[in-house]
Amino acid sequence: MVYVSQQRSESKQEPVNVPVVLSPAVVRAARQIYRVYYEANPDRIQNPIGVAINQYTYRGKLIMTRKPILLPQECFVPFSLIEAPEAA
Length: 88
Known about the structure:
Layout: E1 2-8, E2 16-22, H1 24-40, E3 50-54, E4 60-63, E5 74-78, H2 79-83
Antiparallel strand pairs: 1-2, 3-4, 3-5
């Protein structure tokens, strides 16, 4: 399992770190989505901030500008996890 820190806050003043657990299959699917995008658009310079992905169907979309509002079955995989080397 991969742990990601997510910012949540009861009040607008102080963010709180809440760990989010992402399965390795979700991270692999996010890498595949990014790989397909990169192969189709090799000249694009802008890296996405991450991938919003459905945890059950593994369908997702690249997010380029800001963190998305997610549906209940979706999770956000940050680009730092996508570009990190895969553990053997």
